[in-house]
């Protein structure tokens, strides 16, 4: 049993290094922190801050890195000082781990039930032969096999996987991201661990799903049996879910303490910078604050690791290790210049926007202050019917056939999936249209049709008022007019090509000669704030933020008027997200671009878009000007998306939206949202709502105007399904 | 599982490929220099045939018909499992092939077995102990194995094991002892290729997040390696091994000659020298059929192994 008064986990001066040809990279460089039993501790930092390596070192997955110093005491045992067997016994048995990308952490060739059952089998000490794990007929113990399978199904039920009996036989690729993460959670919980390490568990998920997973972790800790170490880059999540927070940079702890204290009165310049990057209460369409520079590949051995990016750095910061200061009980800050750092309460909105100006890029430095949206909305010719639209979709529908066998096809048993139904959108020159929805909402299919990768089943796409077909039918001029930044940038860039080749590809394809290509690529690199030295790098030598810049440069190569961006920032940490969003706003202003931004995250869309389209199960649920949707949503789904945004300043944690988007093969009757809608009435099940105007927005809900009126007085929040449903 | 639709599609394309091969095979005869009839008769009698003999031979074997008609006759016979008769012996070609085929397939399978038995453990060890002497030794083996021509290795084995040490028979067919040396000679090159492949594929897979996730469960390392990693690593290996089977058959033909083993190879070589066209055509066609069918089976087994492979353009 775990004793209550000593920490469960105590990491001290941990050093994990990665060997390289030059000199070792000190990924973790003397980090120390503790986790008490039943506590939720947030481990925070940008990508490259060493937080993931720290987490992995605890469970012994630091390879190819190596722990070269310090100790990891877990319930009295120093894990750095025991043999592999003991370390392995701690994994799974006492320490469970959940990883970032749930679809990559499940083995693709075994069904999900088996992978959960395996986590149980590990505790069956008498059956550890290879054959016990391979289910060899006549050799493996069938009874044990069946027992584990049954237990696995129970575990799936515990993590809210619907219909676990049949889902256990599904393979990972048949699981959505959220479901796969639940399965990972079931695996991690199989051994009833004392500590659960969750490494960016929700970064790859929809905001609504994120909230359900985090609630699950929360309720786990609430039982007092399991402590959680939550590794994340998002302070919004920390604010809502963690008891204590440890801020990591350069593999060292910069600040640690109770969440409340650290986030409301941050002392360390790095913590403050991280907080300022959040979209949270930033004025829409204004530049976000960013952290100057990027996380370096390696840090100096002496001095404060943050010195190269810190606004308050002095010579002393670089030449000697900063002291540890205790501003309050259990609150520790590692900084030598706290006197010169302004007091925390000065950190308000005004500070936010002024300080941000000189820090990133050159493009927007002459941007006039004030609310950009208002200015542009005023100047834009809003005709409403979209006649001035540069890109428009009229009654787009897309139906995919999913009949799997030709026997069925011959019999006429055809099955269809209506991915998109009757969607009309338009965006005017210089404006930004945001499309938001969970995965399965059909938003990506809309994008595919807009850019001509898919032909609509009915309806049409118009560019500059002229109907256009798919890519194959579009003229060179029409193709050049629309630039695209695809989702999953890392996957869409050829690993062997240099940045120059990647950016020049569209130029090459439209027949530019070599000299012109070189000049244009140089221009584009400058435009997206990449240095000329980046031109010769390849995919693996670029950070996530740099890759995104490459993708943007490539989309801009042929001077498009419209740029379609699919999840442009979902793979980035908060500081890179802020920088990319700033870049997009700058480019829009500088080049007069029109954007279509697609994201599952309403806060991102809300920050950049003039108008937002909320999609669900292939249909538009609500559309309207961004302010209206945020201030006075008139659809319960919009409400749910808004509530799912984690925030540092909010007093209630982000609310989850239970369930998932229904299958488009067999869409629900009546309102598509009725199965998850907290306000659903019996009539919602039978009567399909139509788009109804509520002031300047339109909403597909029977009670649209009531909901708008309700959110207008802003006093009583609408009744939502409470988080307790999940515990 | 594999849908009937996909199966029909694959069988259709395979048939089309075979149709092309059959035309080329049959057309080969026209590409050989000189009058085939004359050449055949010359080989049979050892002297210049008379004009009447040539004319009679041409008439008997329908040489005077136009190509499409002759092809049509031939192919309609072929699909009725009649490959014609040997010019030399008059025996039906199909019977000759049926007699020779088992020996060749036996050799090819034995060689594959040798290759896999060597390659999988070596490749896995090489990946798991990456950068150690084990890895280096296995990579050296792979390099030597790939660069060594199989007929050369065959002669080497004959000289060392059969002639010097007298451990195995030099040539001919018979029990297992006759199979060992040819199988090693043929399998080594394959083993080298597969070792490299297993190594790369394993290294890739060992880097995958799901392997770490399996470790995080507390799974013993050997179970991580042999259950989680190897199963995934074998997916590309199966494809290549299957594709290689066609080449192994080709190699078997060569090795048969080296070891003087009766089989398709010996039969083909004899037939080529004798200008025994029906036999040549028959053997080439059979080898092509084997090649295409193995490819089809490989493709299908690949889909069974890897549940992610989807069929028939579905959308999720
Ligand atoms: S020690 Fe110096 S460089 Fe480091 S955070 Fe404090 S002021 Fe900045
Ligand atoms: S129509 Fe009914 S179910 Fe649909 S969103 Fe409105 S209240 Fe909810």
UniProtKB/TrEMBL annotation, chain A:
Classification via Pfam families: ABC_tran, oligo_HPY
InterPro entries: AAA+_ATPase, ABC_Ni/Peptide_Import, ABC_transporter-like_ATP-bd, ABC_transporter-like_CS, Oligopep_ABC_C, P-loop_NTPase
Compositionally biased tracts (Basic and acidic residues): 354-377, 717-727
Annotated ABC transporter domain residues: 9-275, 391-642
GO cellular component, one term: plasma membrane
GO MF terms, alphabetically ordered: ABC-type nickel transporter activity; ATP binding; ATP hydrolysis activity
CDD domains cross-referenced by the UniProt entry: ABC_NikE_OppD_transporters (cd03257)
Keyword Nucleotide-binding: yes
EC nos: 7.2.2.11
UniProt keywords, alphabetically: ATP-binding, Cell membrane, Ion transport, Membrane, Nucleotide-binding, Translocase, Transport
GO biological process: one example: peptide transport
Primary localization class, coarse: membrane
Membrane topology, as annotated: Peripheral membrane protein
Residues covered by region (Disordered): 341-386, 705-727
Localization (cell): Cell membrane
Reaction equations catalysed: Ni(2+)(out) + ATP + H2O = Ni(2+)(in) + ADP + phosphate + H(+)
Classification via NCBIfam families: oligo_HPY, PRK10419.1, PRK11308.1
Complex and partners: The complex is composed of two ATP-binding proteins (NikD and NikE), two transmembrane proteins (NikB and NikC) and a solute-binding protein (NikA).
Protein name as it appears in the record: Nickel import system ATP-binding protein NikD
Annotated organism of origin: Natrarchaeobius chitinivorans
TrEMBL record, chain B:
InterPro entries to which the protein is assigned, alphabetical: BPD_transp_1_N, MetI-like, MetI-like_sf, Opp2B
Residues annotated as transmembrane: 7-31, 107-128, 140-167, 179-198, 233-259, 279-298
GO cellular component, one term: plasma membrane
Entry keywords, A to Z: Cell membrane, Ion transport, Membrane, Nickel, Transmembrane, Transmembrane helix, Transport
Coiled coil location: none
Localisation per UniProt entry: Cell membrane
Topology in membrane: Multi-pass membrane protein
MF annotations from Gene Ontology: nickel cation transmembrane transporter activity
ABC transmembrane type-1 domain mapped to chain residues: 101-298
Keyword Transport (UniProt): yes
Presence of the UniProt keyword tRNA processing in the record: no
PANTHER family in alphabetical order: DIPEPTIDE TRANSPORT SYSTEM PERMEASE PROTEIN DPPB-RELATED
Membership in a protein family: Belongs to the binding-protein-dependent transport system permease family. OppBC subfamily.
Protein name: ABC transporter permease
Source organism (scientific name): Natrarchaeobius chitinivorans
Organism ancestry: Archaea, Methanobacteriati, Methanobacteriota, Stenosarchaea group, Halobacteria
């Amino acid at each position: 049993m775990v004793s209550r008064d000593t920490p469960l986990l105590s990491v001290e001066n941990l050093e994990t290094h990665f060997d390289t040809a030059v000199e070792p990279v000190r990924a973790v460089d003397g980090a120390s922190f503790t986790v008490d039993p039943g506590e939720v501790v947030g481990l925070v930092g940008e990508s490259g801050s060493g937080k993931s390596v720290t987490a992995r070192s605890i469970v012994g997955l630091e390879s190819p890195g190596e722990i070269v110093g310090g100790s990891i005491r877990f319930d009295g045992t120093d894990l750095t000082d025991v043999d592999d067997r003991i370390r392995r016994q701690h994994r799974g048995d006492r320490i469970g781990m959940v990883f970032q990308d749930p679809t990559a952490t499940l083995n693709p060739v075994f069904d999900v039930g088996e992978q959960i059952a395996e986590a149980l089998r590990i505790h069956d000490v008498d059956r550890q032969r290879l054959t016990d794990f391979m289910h060899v007929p006549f050799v493996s113990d069938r009874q044990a096999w069946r027992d584990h399978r049954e237990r696995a199904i129970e575990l799936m039920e515990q993590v809210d996987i619907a219909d676990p009996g049949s889902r256990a036989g599904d393979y990972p690729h048949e699981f959505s991201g959220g479901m796969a993460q639940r399965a990972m959670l079931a695996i991690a919980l199989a051994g009833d661990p004392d500590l659960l390490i969750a490494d960016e568990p929700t970064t790859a998920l929809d905001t609504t799903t994120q909230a359900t997973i985090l609630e699950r972790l929360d309720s786990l800790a609430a039982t007092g049996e399991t402590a959680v170490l939550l590794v994340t880059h998002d302070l919004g999540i920390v604010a809502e879910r963690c008891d204590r927070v440890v801020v990591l940079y350069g593999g060292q702890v910069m600040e640690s303490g109770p969440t409340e204290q650290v986030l409301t009165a941050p002392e360390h310049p790095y913590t403050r910078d991280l907080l300022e990057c959040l979209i949270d209460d930033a004025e829409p369409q204004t530049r976000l604050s960013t952290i100057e520079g990027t996380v370096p590949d390696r840090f100096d051995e002496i001095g404060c690791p943050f010195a190269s990016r810190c606004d308050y750095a002095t010579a002393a910061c670089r030449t000697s290790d900063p002291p540890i200061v205790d501003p309050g009980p259990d609150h520790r800050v590692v900084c030598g210049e706290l006197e010169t750092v302004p007091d925390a309460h000065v950190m308000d909105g005004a500070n936010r926007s002024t300080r941000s100006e000189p820090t990133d890029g050159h493009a927007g430095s002459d941007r006039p202050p004030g609310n950009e949206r208002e200015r542009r909305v005023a100047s834009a010719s809003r005709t409403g019917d979209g006649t001035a639209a540069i890109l428009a979709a009229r009654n787009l529908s897309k139906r995919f056939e999913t009949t799997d066998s030709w026997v069925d096809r011959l019999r006429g048993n055809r099955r269809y999936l209506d991915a998109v139904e009757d969607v009309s959108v338009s965006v005017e020159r210089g404006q930004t249209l945001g499309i938001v929805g969970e995965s399965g909402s059909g938003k990506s299919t809309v994008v595919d049709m807009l850019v001509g990768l898919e032909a609509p089943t009915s309806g049409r796409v118009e560019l500059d008022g002229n109907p256009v077909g798919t890519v194959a039918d579009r003229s060179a001029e029409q193709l050049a007019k629309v630039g695209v930044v695809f989702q999953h940038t890392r996957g869409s860039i050829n690993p062997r090509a240099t940045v120059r080749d990647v950016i020049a590809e569209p130029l090459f394809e439209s027949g530019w000669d070599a000299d012109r290509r070189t000049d244009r690529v140089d221009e584009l690199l400058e435009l997206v704030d990449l240095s000329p030295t980046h031109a010769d790098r390849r995919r693996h030598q670029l950070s996530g933020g740099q890759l995104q810049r490459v993708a943007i440069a490539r989309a801009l190569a042929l001077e498009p008027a419209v740029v379609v961006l699919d999840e442009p920032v979902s793979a980035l940490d908060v500081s890179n997200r802020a920088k990319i969003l700033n870049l997009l706003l700058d480019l829009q202003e500088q080049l007069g671009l029109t954007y279509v931004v697609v994201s599952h995250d309403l806060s991102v869309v809300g920050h950049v878009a003039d108008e937002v389209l909320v999609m669900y199960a292939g249909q538009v649920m609500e559309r309207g000007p961004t302010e209206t949707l945020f201030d006075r949503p008139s659809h319960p789904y919009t409400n749910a998306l808004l509530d799912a945004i984690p925030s540092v300043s909010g007093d209630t944690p982000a609310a989850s939206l239970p369930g998932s988007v229904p299958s488009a093969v067999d869409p629900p009757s009546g309102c598509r949202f009725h199965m998850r809608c907290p306000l659903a009435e019996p009539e919602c099940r039978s009567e399909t709502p139509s788009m109804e105007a509520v002031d300047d927005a339109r909403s597909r809900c029977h009670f649209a105007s009531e909901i708008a009126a309700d959110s207008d007085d802003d006093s009583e929040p609408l009744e939502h399904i409470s988080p307790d449903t999940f515990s | 599982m594999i849908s009937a639709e996909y199966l029909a599609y694959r069988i259709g394309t395979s048939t089309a490929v075979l149709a092309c091969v059959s035309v080329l095979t049959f057309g080969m005869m026209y590409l050989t220099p000189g009058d085939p009839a004359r050449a055949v008769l010359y080989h049979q009698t050892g002297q210049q045939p008379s004009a009447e003999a040539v004319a009679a031979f041409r008439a008997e074997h329908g040489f005077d018909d136009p190509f499409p008609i002759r092809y049509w006759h031939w192919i309609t016979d072929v699909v009725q499992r009649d490959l014609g008769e040997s010019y030399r012996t008059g025996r039906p070609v199909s019977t000759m092939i049926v007699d020779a085929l088992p020996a060749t397939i036996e050799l090819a399978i034995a060689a594959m077995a040798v290759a896999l038995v060597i390659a999988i453990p070596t490749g896995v060890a090489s990946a798991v102990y990456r950068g150690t002497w084990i890895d280096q030794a296995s990579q050296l083996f792979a390099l030597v194995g790939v660069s060594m021509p199989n007929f050369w290795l065959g002669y080497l084995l004959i000289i060392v094991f059969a002639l010097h040490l007298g451990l195995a028979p030099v040539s001919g067919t018979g029990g297992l002892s006759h199979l060992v040396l040819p199988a090693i000679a043929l399998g080594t090159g394959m083993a080298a290729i597969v070792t490299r492949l297993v190594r790369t594929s394993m290294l890739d897979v060992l880097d995958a997040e799901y392997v770490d996730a399996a470790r995080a469960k507390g799974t013993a390392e050997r179970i991580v390696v042999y259950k989680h990693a190897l199963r995934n690593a074998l997916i590309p290996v199966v494809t290549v091994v299957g594709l290689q089977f066609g080449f192994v058959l080709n190699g078997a033909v060569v090795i048969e000659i080296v070891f003087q083993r009766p089989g398709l190879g010996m039969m083909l070589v004899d037939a080529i020298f004798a200008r025994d066209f029906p036999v040549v055509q028959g053997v080439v066609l059979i080898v092509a059929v084997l090649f295409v069918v193995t490819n089809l089976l490989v493709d299908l087994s690949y889909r069974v192994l890897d549940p992610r492979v989807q069929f028939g353009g579905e959308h999720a």
